[in-house]
Amino acid sequence: MNDKNASRSPVAEKPQDERTPSAAESQWEEKVLKPNLAKSPERATEFTTTSGFPIRRLYTEADLPNWNPDRDLGYPGQPPYTRGIHPTMHRGRLWTMRQFAGFGTAEDTNQRFRYLLSQGQTGLSVAFDLPTLMGYDSDHPLSEGEVGKCGVAISSLADMEVLFDKIPMADVTTSMTINSPAAVIWAMYLAVAEQQGADWKQISGTLQNDILKEYIAQKEYIYPPEPSMRLVIDTFEFGTKHTPKFNTISISGYHIREAGSTAIQELAFTLRDGLEYVDWGIRRGLDVDEFGPRLSFFFNAHNDFFEEIAKYRAARRIWYKAMRERFDSKNPRTWALRFHTQTAGCSLTAQQPYNNVVRTAIQALAAVLGGTQSLHTNSLDEAWALPTEFAATLALRTQQIIAHESGVTNTADPLGGSYFVETLTNEVERGAWDYIEKIDALGGMVAAIERSYPQREIAEASYKYQLAVDSKEKIIVGVNDYITDEKPLEILQIDETVAQRQAVRLKKLRADRSQAEVDRRLAALRNAAQGKENMMPYIYEAVKVYATLGEICDALREVFGTYEEVAIT
Amino acid sequence: MPEKKIRVLIAKPGLDGHDRGAKIIARALRDAGMEVIYTGLRQTPEMIASAAVQEDVDVIGLSILSGAHNTLCPQLMDLLHKKGMDDVLVLLGGIIPEADIPALKKVGIAGIFLPGTSTQNIVSFVRAHIAQRG
Q1: Among residues 5-34 of chain B, which lie with CB inside 8 Å of chain A?
Q2: What are the structural domains, with CATH classification, of chain A?
Q3: Of A60, B2, B42, B87, which residue is the least packed, with the fewest Cβ within 10 Å?
Q4: Which residue of B has its CA nearest to A217?
Q5: CATH 3.40.50.280 fits B7-133, yes or no
Q6: What's the average model confidence in pLDDT over A273-277?
Q7: By three-state DSSP, how is residue A322 classified?
Q8: Residue-wise DSSP of A144-175
Q9: What is the value of ipTM here, to two decimals?
Q10: What is the pTM of this model?
Q11: Is B16 helix (H, G, I), strand (E, B) or coil?
């Protein structure tokens, strides 16, 4: 990154303690507040957000002394995008209701997808099982016990064909939560699209493809960081050329938050990951304003309503400033941060699971008020298992009620101009810049990960949060207070025959395909991996002759080796 | 004379990378004065059983959120038995459906801790059971 541009962006506000109240406010404090406090003290000496961020009793114009609405707030669809990236926001178009789903075989998940689409869901989102996420076929020894358990099992193009059977890929956008083997799964998706006659230039969807947050939080990595980053940039390059409407990455804070980070850490590490990808893309020789518009983001929606809203607003402002200042971007589509949101899985409780519907509704409302482009709402039973159809439908209905009944979609950024929300947005932005600069100083995110910096920060925050719950400093309804006896919940059972069915299918696939052709294309891929070429076309060729996910990932394992983290506790 | 420290192996079996719980438990047990070894991610039952023997632990804490517990736990218990480690206290935490609990207890998992369990509960459980076993 260009050092002269890496300086701190101006954040409008002074820290909280320097505020100068107006005469009217001081008078209120003397005449009204003090006598009241003397009679009835507050419930606690300090109030904080879920992330432990201190919150004042009252916010007034004194908290925003240097605030300039034209500069810091702007208008929707205009820099700095604090109020949202579209001029009409949800008046023009509602967010995409995109429920993450996947379990069992491709047939099982295809059925759930078609059901969800029939219920008014507007986009698909695929959850893959752990063997798929780790680049192993369903019949690999390490896949034992994991096949189809926390997502759908996809081992080859044949499975992908079944997954999208009777789903028109030209019309439905699909998000795929896949990272280390993202290029392979994407190649399978593109091959099915081709079979369906869908135009690659027109199809849209999102590949998660965010390997940095795997090292930081989610931990489903295969290869070391350098070759992994090369694979990511290969998909950027391929996508820019062949699939101009496809989001080749979804830079994700979701998993960072789930691993126990604070809201500020989630924001900072995610955006710094984003800057790292841009940096690597530019070093490949790509034009930021060609691939930049295809970068998308993915944030968590945790319990603290206003903190979350401030986080989304600050995210847009930081990304805009960083794209302009650090990369000299000229394209407004590069400046505008688009994001998906998922409500916080880690906030769901196994105890009194119906309470989770309420938590999810509040979290989803924060995402909508924060201007999300798409949303997944968790199901009430997910602290026990994957959701039943009943629970998944209720989660979708939660979004539909917010969209059509609550009235919050009638205006853009309804909380804009609130003293509290604007101050919090400034504070969250300031906190995130501090982290971003620390990571710059460590030499960037890959270097920071290798030194376990973000991992350690998250582990620290996560332990602190747990202690606050254990000591009841934080109340979790149904868990450490308001406890009642309960009946067990009816949950989804994953059929134990999934692995056997997958093994049979793989055996048949290997018997029916041309092994010579598979060997030839895997050798070509290995050869490309050893050089500097873009690997995407070779992966696509291998996928098309039904080389399996495991075989393709193994070919790359031979060239790149595998990654082991230094475990921090 | 200082009491002998309780030795604990915290392990992540299977392909699951969700390590928030494992790390919290490792740290809470360490803060409670125990000797804690964390295996890191993606350990096979064989690797965990060998580490348990090598480190001569009193307790093994497993963390599984992927749904693979019904396969991995019986495999581990079998290996521990073969290695003569029947007296080690084996605990499990994670996303575990209630219907699976009786079968897991039957193969010898002594304690199963679901989401929402406080770290103090786990610390006291370990202390009470190790004291019992003398």
Answers
A1: 10, 14-20, 22-24, 26-28, 30
A2: 69-470 (3.20.20.240), 499-560 (no CATH)
A3: B2
A4: B18
A5: yes
A6: 98
A7: helix
A8: TTTTTTSSB---SHHHHHHHTTT--TTT--EE
A9: 0.94
A10: 0.95
A11: coil
